[in-house]
Write a structure and sequence with these properties.
mainly alpha; globular
């Protein structure tokens, strides 16, 4: 039964990707769209297989745990639909907004898992609870994110179609972590929809209802699945919007705005004790330190002070940008992650020395840099599990890799090598 469902849905959805207007407006032809869709399906199947047979080794048991919860939620729909449609809004802790950034005993912390389980339960209505059939649904849903970003980058870097596609779909950790049944694929879709809506809205100086819906949908997805990411995304989007008024002063606007956000980060608790953002990060770090695993590394404790954050910044950058080192390799996934980091560092060196004189949108590039760096810092400050770090940072890698590779003068490098 599962094989029949899988084959039928695969053919149906492969045809569907050639009919969805958002996909066809990318300028990609039908075979290219089908190949990208099938690439995500294959990565999602591999993700599930790794999680099933090597889950404990690679610390990937979450995907099958979510699958089991999704089936239970699907069964609840059949036996008690009233509970099914209301349980997502029930707060068992009764704490309201006061635990918005808490890591435990918090409705908001539980929300990310509950929303994802609810999505899987909807898939189960059509897949009858088959994991790999759900992968097909998930692949179609999360294809909107990469293609939204592709449409933006293809407009920013005209004539770089295949460079952008390769940079987007062949970054190993991005393809792997955003194609499997986990939250990253939907999170990336949320971020990409926001970028897509604002970029073309600013360019055309017009925000129609479709772009507003895309923006709201993207913000809702991020809010539902990782609320702390929303706290980093919204300031970046707002600064981007302001900088569009004075594009020539974009870098100064971003620098000034993020200095203000940093000050606000450390002083908001004096306005309202519930807005103690530094303590929330410290609590998050302590929660991760309790989750001992094979890829856990020792780190220095963070304290809720500006001095402590400044002192821990090199450690945070090292964790989120440079690791895993070759010495951290313990299994095939960590080996792939270590090799990927080395390759990206090589590409960065090529970008520094062989950059083409292009002039992409300054405000968009500044948004990407400041937003991505804030995400990397938040990961490095709060996390000491290398497996989780690789997964968390996967959603911002295309934002950094595409502009970098698109601006490398490959012809000049070829001439230099062939001398």
């Amino acid at each position: 039964m599962e094989y029949l469902l899988f084959s039928g849905y695969l053919v149906l959805f492969a045809w569907l990707v050639t009919r969805v207007r958002f996909f066809t407006q990318t300028g990609l032809n039908n075979p290219q769209l089908v190949i990208l869709f099938l690439l995500k399906v294959m990565a999602g199947i591999f993700y599930g297989w790794i999680g099933l047979y090597y889950g404990n080794l690679a610390q990937m048991v979450d995907t099958w745990g979510y699958h089991a919860e999704g089936i239970r939620e699907y069964q609840l729909l059949q036996t008690n639909p009233g509970e099914y449609f209301t349980n997502l809004f029930h707060d068992p802790y009764g704490s309201g907004l006061t635990t918005f950034f808490d890591s435990s005993n918090s409705y908001w912390n539980d929300l990310k898992g509950n929303v994802f389980i609810k999505i899987l339960s909807i898939f189960n209505v059509f897949s009858f609870g088959h994991y790999y059939v759900n992968v097909i649904f998930y692949s179609l849903l999360t294809l909107f994110g990469p293609l939204a970003l592709y449409r933006v980058m293809n407009d920013v870097f005209p004539g770089k179609k295949f460079t952008i596609l390769l940079s987007l779909f062949l970054v190993p950790s991005f393809l792997f972590w955003t194609s499997g049944l986990h939250k990253e694929g939907i999170l990336f879709t949320g971020v990409s929809l926001c970028i897509y809506a604002l970029y073309f809205g600013f360019k055309e100086k017009r925000f129609g209802w479709k772009r507003i819906v895309s923006l709201l949908m993207g913000l809702t997805l991020v809010f539902s699945l990782r609320n702390f990411l929303l706290a980093l995304l919204v300031p970046g989007l707002l600064t981007w919007a302001v900088s569009m008024k004075w594009p020539g002063k974009s870098i100064r606007i971003f620098a000034g705005a993020y200095v203000f956000f940093c000050i606000l980060f450390f002083t908001s608790r004096y306005i309202n004790p519930h807005l103690d953002f530094p303590q929330a990060v410290v609590n998050k770090q302590q929660e991760f330190k309790k989750l001992m695993g094979r890829s856990t590394v020792p780190i220095r404790d963070l304290e809720p002070t500006a001095v402590s954050f400044f002192e821990n910044m090199p450690q945070a950058i090292t964790l989120s940008v440079l690791r895993p080192y070759p010495g951290d390799v313990q299994h095939i996934l960590s080996l792939a992650a270590a090799m990927e980091i080395d390759l990206l560092l090589l590409l960065f060196i090529l970008f520094i020395f062989w950059r083409t004189p292009q002039h992409p949108s300054r405000s968009l590039m500044n948004f990407i840099l400041f937003f991505s760096f804030s995400v990397l810092l938040s990961i490095g400050f709060s996390n000491n599990n290398l497996g989780a770090i690789v997964r968390y940072r996967s959603i911002i890698l295309p934002l950094l890799v595409i502009p970098m590779i698109a601006q490398i003068d490959w012809k000049k490098i070829y001439k230099y090598i062939s001398k």
